Structure formats: structure tokens, C-alpha cells
Amino acid sequence: MILLDSEKQGFSKSLVPISTVNWLFSFAIIIPLVVMPLYARSLGATLLQSSLLLATYYGVQTISLVFMGSLSDIMGSRKPFIIFSLFGLAVILLIISFVSIPTLLILLMGIMGVVAAGFRPTCMGLVSAISSKAEKGKSLGILNTSTSIGWASGSLLGGLIADLFNFAVTFYLACSIAFTAAILTIIFLKEITTSTNKERNFRRIISSLKNRFLPNSDENSYLKEHGLNWLYVVFYLRYSAYGGAFSFLSIFFAGLFSNSWAGILIGIYLGLSGFLMAPIGKFSDKIGRKPILILGSLGTSVTLIIYALAYDLFLLLAMQIFLSVVFAAIYTGGSAFVSDVAPEFKHNEAMGLLNSSLSLGAVTGSVLGGIMAELFGLRVMFVFLAIFPIIGTAIVLLKLSETISSKTL
Predict the structure, then answer these.
(1) How far apart are CA 202 and CA 205, in angstroms?
(2) Is residue 215 one of the residues assigned to a domain?
(3) Please, are residues 53 and 40 in contact by the beta-carbon 8 Å criterion?
(4) CA 265 to CA 316: how far, in whole Å?
């Protein structure tokens, strides 16, 4: 199916199937990301080894995201990549449930990074394709809402099931969710192709990939518009901070309270941010992207500093609520900024670069955080990581220019 401009008017209805599948994928993928550090620690892994679980996942995903986004753009299709990711995730999760060696878990997390990379950029590219420019912030906010609700559901149930039963059962649950999402995708999700990519022979795909990764300077000139290239740096810095902290949040919260409370605290901020993403996306359509990005970046530093000082459950609950606003702001604002600037035939690639910046930051943060936690403890690590988003906030102020015109505002 080729998407025509007139079809964009029905974008809200078109968002239902992709948002549902995205919710299920997010539900399945967050369970290993939250539970795996706890599972590895139960097997005798050190803090540094635990950090390598997510560092490996994000590191492999960093490379895979841009490749998957570019290949999707070139082939002009998205559905095959979504199906591949969902079935691949189901298989990996099933294997993980039988593994009890930390080093093998690290390898499997790397493979998971490959299969998961085909999902997010293609979903974001699909939503951008069916949305008008005036509605992109809102549309991406709706997609991100389904992501966060899935993350919240997986976090809450993952920690609870680990306490009530065992870690293997949590992986069985995630596997069944991913498999169900794959079946629903095959049945209900319509293929949406771009009109600029009609030929799909093997030689054309290889040639186009070569041009994507070794492009002429003019082809990527859009990266300099409005400081888009600097936005990727902001995301890298922000997720270096929070990605590093996230590697240890479940361990940190479980050490203070329990596995169930770890899942609840992480799930609260993910769930609330889900409800906030759509209105914040719409709000960014009105006031502009920069104020939203500043809130998301600077708010991350504030949250990490409070983590370093907090012992009280109610204070941490309050910070998780604040973090939900921060998370919704940085991700929705960044996604809308990219969607504003990137040309339509480069959307998947541009979104892939955004997610790669996120993943690369998470790799850096996980490794640095693991070293700091091993040497000085988790609370010192939180303070150290808080420096990164402060630098990112300065970049937003100095290097990014607003993508929403004054007339629109």
C-alpha cells in the first residue's frame, strides 16, 4: 500500500494497530532489561558484570539501529522488520529462561540488541509517514505513550512475578507476549511503503546501503539544519547518565526494599510518562521543542542527585513521578525535533540515529557506571552521572534552534 496525502487524515485510526503492537513489544522487552541485573546478581555476578548485560545490549543495538532504519527506508517496507524483531525476541527470551551462566547471559543480551533494533525505528518512521507536520508531535506522543505503558506493565509484573515465583517465569511471560505481538502484526498491521522506493532487487539494496553509510555530503546536509546533529549529542549525554543509572536501579531499589518494590518504582515512572507523552507532545507543538528538551535534560540531573541522597520510600516515589515528566519531555521532544527536520525519505534513518545516540549513551553510562559503582558505590555513581545532562542542557541552549515557527507558536 502506498500512503497518499489524503490518507493522513485518518491517522488516528491507523495508530491503533501499531500502538497496540508497540505496547506489547515494550511490555516484553522491558522485563529482561529490569529483571536481568537482579537475575545475574542471584547467579553471583559482580556489579561490573551486571552493568555489562545492558552495556552489551545497547552496544550491539547502537550499530544495528541505523542499519535497520536505513534498510527499511531503502526497501520501502516496515512490516517485515517488525515481525523479525518480535519473533526473534520471543526466541531469545525463551533461551534466557534456561541459562544460568552470567557470561552466556551477556552474549544473549547482545543478540537481543540485534533483533530488537528492527522494531523501534520502523514504528517511528511509520507514524511519521501517516501524520501531518502539525500533528507529528501528538502522533509520536501517542506512540511513546504505548511504549511507556508497556514498559510500566512489564516492570510491575516482572518484579512481582520474580518475588512470587522465580526469574524463569518472568522470561516465559515476556516470551509469550512477544510471540502474541508477532501474530497480531501478521494479521492486523497493514504494510505502508514509501513511493520513492519501488525497486527492491538485491543489487539496488546493496548499492543504496553503500550510499547511506558512505554518502555524499549533500545527502546528509539535513543533519546540520536547526542543529539536529547536536541533538544527537544531547541524547547521548542524557542517556549516558540515565542509561548508566538504569543498569542499577533495580538492584538499588531491591537493596532498599524488595524485588516487587523495584518493579513498582520503575513501573510508576514508566507508566506515568506514558500518560504524559501525548499531552507533552501536543504541548511541544505549541511552545516549541527547545523548552521541552531543556526540561528533559536538566531534570535528569536533578533526579540522579536526589537518588544519591534518598533513603525514604516516599521521597523516591515522588522522584519517580518527577522522572516521568522528565522522560516524557526528552523523548517526545527529541522525536518531534527529528521528525520536523528530517526529509520524509530519511525519517527511518534519522530516527535510527536518534535511537543509536540513546543506545551509545547507555553503553557509555553502563560501563562507566559499573566501574564507579564497583569502586565507590551506587550513590557516588549517581552524582558522577548527573554531570552529563548538565552539559547536554548547555548544548540545547547554545546549539539548537527552534523547529516550530513563530507563526505556529
Answers:
(1) 5
(2) no
(3) yes
(4) 8
Give the three cell numbers for residue 236. 547521548
Distance CA 61, CA 35 (A): 19
In this structure, the chain runs to a length of 409
Distance in angstroms (rounded) separating the CA atoms of residues 51 and 214: 33
- Report the C-alpha gap between 280 and 293 in whole angstroms: 11
Distance separating alpha carbons of residues 131 and 395, to the nearest angstrom: 29
Average pLDDT of adjacent 10-residue blocks, the chain of 409 residues: 38 74 92 89 87 87 74 70 91 92 92 88 74 68 80 88 90 94 85 53 55 56 79 92 90 92 88 80 84 92 95 94 91 84 73 79 89 92 96 92 65
Count of domains forming the chain: 1
DSSP-assigned letter for residue 377: -
Q: Which domain holds residue 118?
A: 12-194+202-208+224-399
**Which cell goes with 130?**
501517516
226 torsion bin: left (phi>0), alpha (psi -120 to 50), beta (else): left
Tell me the whole-structure pTM to 2 decimals. 0.76
